[in-house]
Every structure is written in structure tokens, then in C-alpha cells.
Amino acid sequence: MTVNVLAETVRRARPQQSACSRYPLFPRSHRLAHLAHGSRYPGGMAIRWTRMRFTRQLMLLQIAVVVALVTTGFGLVSWLLEHNLELQYKQRALAVARTVAADPGLGDLVRAREQPAVQQVASRQLQSTQALFVVITDDRGIRLSHPDPSLIGKPVSTDPTQALSGKEVASLERGTLGLSARGKVPLRDGAGRIVGEVSVGFDAQDIRNSLIGLLALALPFALGALLLGAGAAGLLTRLLKRRTFGLEPAELADLVREREAVLYGIGDGVLAVDANHRVTMCNDEAIRLLSTPIEPGTEVSRLDLPPGLLKLFDEHVGHRALTVVGSRVLVANHRPVARDGVGLGSVVTLRDRTDVEQLTSELAAVRSMTGALRAQRHEFANRMHTVLGLLQTGARDDALEYLRSVTQFTGGDDISASPAVRSATIRSFMAAKTARAAELGVSLRLSDETWVPHRLIAPVEVITVLGNLVDNALEAAHASTRRPAEVEVDLLSDGTELVISVSNTGEGVLPENVETIFVEGMSTRGDERGLGLAIARQTAETVGGSIEVTNCGGGAADTVFVARLPNVLEAGSS
After folding, report:
1. pTM of the complete model
2. Fold entry, domain 266-348
3. Residue 128: C-alpha distances to residues 86, 99, 152 (Å)
4. What is the mean pLDDT of the chain?
5. Residue 100 and residue 121: Cα distance in Å, rounded?
6. Which of 359, 335, 330, 338 is nearest to 347 (CA)?
7. CA-CA distance, 422 to 440, in Å (whole number)?
8. CA-to-CA distance for 520 and 527, rounded, in angstroms?
């Protein structure tokens, strides 16, 4: 299919040949000389043959082969017919000669030299057999009968030795009456002695006339075979032209080379299927991105591909979608291919966006932390300005009271000041997410069991996992009908390992979707969503960790996600 599509593209984009490009076998000066002198150019026939389209050359060669075969066959049949007719006429002449020689009393008449009686017997046989001649001789080869009376009494024109020696002879010889097929047999008297010979001949023109009649019957069949072969050659040429979209062999060879260069030289994966959803082409990059072996001729439904990607092949219009294959985030572009209104299949190009999506997620986490730090800085500046104002007005006691109030504030809502989490990165991130949760009408809080007394040594990876889990929980709680909408984050350190538990009051996860939400990019919140959990699991796996659903939720139960991130905390810091 893809070859057909690319062939069609090349055919439409193929430039017209110039006058010079029509003569690739000769230098430019010779071509100009040919244009100036016309047909006097030596080798013009070869040029015209070279310029002729391959399909026409093929048709002419096929017709030439058919003509040669029919002509050769007709000639062979003619030769066999002629040979058989000669043999039949020789055997016929020999049979008549035997019949004449078997006439009772003829041998005695010849031995007695009764020429008139012998001539009478020969004339009677000549009339009854329609032969060219019936000649009877004596034992010396002297004619006793002949259609031409003037030749009676003269020796025969052909050698009678074999017949007079007792042998029968059948041959095609030329005599006084012309070329004829003749048979010669010995003539015996009543005592069995050889007294002469009987020679019977049939005109060779009769053989030729019979041959022409038979060939006239066979000629229509030969012409019919010739026309049938030419018609078949024309149909085959037309079918070949249609199958190759009118491209020449050289163009097809160039097309294959260009196809290989394009398909295996680009950075995108390319997967093409025909109208029956069978794979017709797949480059190495597509196999690498899809992480599955793909053989041409395999049905797409039998491949181990994500459901979102399989669904693309059922689309009859171009479509773009994001899908997750293993740990990769891929952009799939689907384009159906048609020619003259007939669907030829479709092509899907795959582009790896894993790094882009991961960097986007990390950037969002950094922005959240930056925003939280900026808010804290702004709040800290406001507090310092308040203290400065009190001191400038001489309200020393009020300033001391204000400072005591600020330093002793440990309210549960102030996550940024939580003593249970030593990492300022996590505290700042949680403070920013608390503001976002408030906008969504969701209560975000750290659990009372949270305890992380160590600093982070992999802040980007931790915030990426924590951020995607919190974002997913906030959206689930916000979209749920349960109220109050709550999200609780539980952070625990186990040596250098950080255990993150995020629960939400959302609608829950169906048991059959527990794994697909991580690997398929599945989401019920719109197109091109459902990548956060896949990126979170991928990031966790890069540090040797894992993410799993420990409680599917639903009803009055909370949905709980647990991530384990080893070696992300400093050892021995407190």
C-alpha cells in the first residue's frame, strides 16, 4: 500500500522530460546534431526504443514472442502435414501398383509382349484410380504401356533395377510427366518369375493442393491464437500499468531507494496498513518506540499496541492523539490514504514526547515551588514591615507581642511551617498546592503521621511524583459529588526511602483500570489527558521506585495511591 502511495506521490511530482533528457545515451553535441539532421542520426531506432515506455516495450515484446511462436508452430505443422501427405501418396501409389501387378494373366501378357492387351489393362487402371500414370515394363525396363503412346517401346526415365530385382519402391521422383509420388513393384508371370515392373504415380501438385486445403483450415485457428495472445499481452500490460501507477522500472527503483532513505533516515516511527488493516510497512524507529516486533502482513488487531493507538486505525479521517507505551509518551498522527476515492489504507507516524512531557511536568513543579517561595517571601516582607513600623512608632511592647505570635504559630493549615517536614522544597510545594486546592474547593492537608526529618537529594524526581499524584487527587476530589472534598498527603521516611501516600474523596478507580491508568494514558477528563500518572510511574521507576493503587475507593471509601522512592533522602541528617 505504502509503495503505491509513495509511487502516486512521485508520479504527480515527476517533472516532464526536456528535449535533451530524451537522449541519455549520447552527448549533448550529438543530440543537437540529431535534432538538426533528423532521422540521419545513426542509432535513432535504438533511441526511439529507449524512449518508449516500458509497458509498451513489454507489450511489443510479448506480441513479438506470440507471433514467433504462432509462426514457428504453423511452419512446423505445415512441414508435418506435407511430410505425412507425401508418405500417404507414396503408400497410395504403392498400393495401386500392387493391385495392378496382382491382375491375373498380366504377367503372361508381358512375357508374351502383348503390348495392346497390356496397354488396355493399364488404361483401365488409370481411369479407375485417377493416377497420373500407370506404366508397365518388361524385364529390360522397356515401356509396354504409358499415357503418352509416343513413349511406348522406350526405356523408362527412372531406374527400374530395384523393382526388377524383386523389391518394392516408394519415392518422390521427377519423370517425363513431372514430379510425382510413385510406387514400383515387380511383375510376375504365372510361374512366379519376374517378367517386368508396374510403376504407378500421382501428381505432386495433388499433394500441394491437399496441403493448401489443410493449411487453409488451420490458418483461422493460428490467427485466432495470434489475436488471443496479442489481446492477453495488451490486458497484461494494462494491468501492470494500473498496478504500478504508470511508473517506469527506473522510477520504481528510484522510488524504492528513496523510500528506504526516507523511512529509515527520519527520526519518526512510521507504521502503514492496507485497507484490510494488515501491516504493509514498519520502520525500525516504530518498532523501537512501540517496543514490540512487527512483521509485514500481520493484522493490526494482533499486535500488542495500546487501545488508543489501535482505535486510530478505525478512523476514516486524520486524527492526532497522545498515547503511552510502556514508559514513553508518544504523539500519534493518523492519515488515511485514498486514490480516486478508493481507500488504500492509512499511515500512522509516531513521535517520542517522553522527554518533553517529563520536562513540562518538572517545570510545573518548579513553578509551583517558585510561586510558593515568592508568596512566603512576600508574607515575610509584610511581617518585617509590620515589625519595622511598630519599632519606628515606639510601640516596642506591641512589636514583641507580634513577633511572639508569629514565631509561636503552628496552625495545621500553615503547611509551609510544618515541623514534620524538614525539606523546604516539599513545604513550599505543599503550600502552593494548598492555594490551588482552595481555588478548587478542595481541602488539602498533611496527615498527622507525616514525618520526614531528612533533606531531599533528588528534589526534582520527588516533586514530579508528588505533584502528579496531588494534581490527580485534586482533580478527582473536585469532580466527585462527595462533600467535603478532601485530599490528604502522608509523607514518611524509611532511612533514605520516601513513602508518599495520597488519598482523595473522588469517585474511585475501577479494578480493571488499576494498571491501565498508568500505562495507557487513559483519562475521562478530555482528550490528551491521562499522562500525569504515567509520567509519575516512569519517574518513580527511574530512581528504582514504584507507584501502585492500594485502595480503589468508591462509595464512602477514599482512593489511595502509594509511591515508594528509594535513595531520595539524605542519610543520617536530622
Report:
1. 0.40
2. Beta-Lactamase (3.30.450)
3. 21, 12, 21
4. 77
5. 8
6. 335
7. 27
8. 13
